[in-house]
């Protein structure tokens, strides 16, 4: 079986040679289809840099990255964008919602980009709004929502297109226990129904307990945890 995600000796360096900072130091990691992987580590350990590389937002300085067996280094920018749009869902710590769009429109946007029919979009969005207790907020703008509500919209937007890989940066941030459980349950349903893989950076014990594998990042180096 081809791994969903495979990193081989991935490094990320910033600055000139005489003032170089190494954010990631030869990270080797494999994520299988349907796997939940938690990345733990303090601020500044390289977690966000790693997520950005895996999400095709940033480029490594060296090493090899394969996504579903595809060598990412061989893709041009347009191909990277297509893979990112079609295959990857993002849950950001700061939500990254579009301010001028309503809750409904923010969630529907990934489906619009993938040319899904209006009827299908309406059905999918209403389903996920109901699951995450957001139906009554569907016409609200992000500025009219609480932090927890914005986080739930971010989770809904990431999962609505049923991505093969979900990259999450503190997905339970701003959520109370009940809504964190709802979000995690939705992730598990996507995982079980479609084999989606999850790469999650989190300090939350509730989130970590849902993961079947855990690794730690410290000073740009990775170790497996029991």
TrEMBL record:
Residues 5-225 form the ABC transporter domain. PROSITE patterns: ABC_TRANSPORTER_1, ABC_TRANSPORTER_2. One of its GO terms (molecular function) is ATP binding. CDD domains: ABC_MJ0796_LolCDE_FtsE (cd03255). Gene3D superfamilies: P-loop containing nucleotide triphosphate hydrolases (3.40.50.300). Keywords: ATP-binding, Nucleotide-binding, Transport. SMART domains: AAA. One of its GO terms (cellular component) is membrane protein complex. InterPro entries: AAA+_ATPase, ABC_transporter-like_ATP-bd, ABC_transporter-like_CS, ABC_transpr_LolD-like, MacB-like_ATP-bd, P-loop_NTPase. It holds the Pfam family ABC_tran. This is ABC-type antimicrobial peptide transport system, ATPase component.
């Amino acid at each position: 079986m081809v791994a969903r995600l495979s990193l081989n000796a991935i490094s990320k360096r910033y600055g000139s040679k005489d003032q170089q900072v190494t954010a990631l130091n030869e990270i080797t990691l494999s994520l299988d289809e349907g796997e939940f992987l938690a990345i733990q580590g303090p601020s500044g350990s390289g977690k966000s840099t790693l997520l950005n590389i895996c999400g095709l937002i940033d480029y490594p300085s060296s090493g090899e990255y394969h996504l579903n067996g595809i060598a990412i280094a061989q893709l041009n920018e347009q191909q990277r964008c297509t893979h990112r749009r079609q295959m990857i869902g993002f849950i950001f710590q700061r939500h990254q919602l579009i301010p001028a769009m309503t809750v409904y429109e923010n969630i529907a946007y990934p489906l619009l980009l993938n040319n899904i029919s209006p009827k299908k979009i309406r059905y999918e969005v209403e389903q996920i709004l109901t699951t995450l207790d957001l139906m009554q907020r569907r016409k609200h703008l992000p500025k009219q929502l609480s932090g927890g509500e914005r986080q739930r919209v971010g989770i809904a937007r990431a999962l609505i297109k049923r991505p093969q890989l979900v990259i999450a940066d503190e997905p339970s941030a701003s959520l109370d226990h009940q809504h964190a459980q709802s979000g995690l349950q939705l992730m598990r349903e996507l995982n079980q129904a479609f084999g989606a893989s999850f790469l999650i950076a989190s300090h939350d014990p509730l989130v970590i307990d849902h993961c079947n594998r855990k690794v730690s990042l410290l000073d740009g180096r990775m170790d497996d945890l029991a």
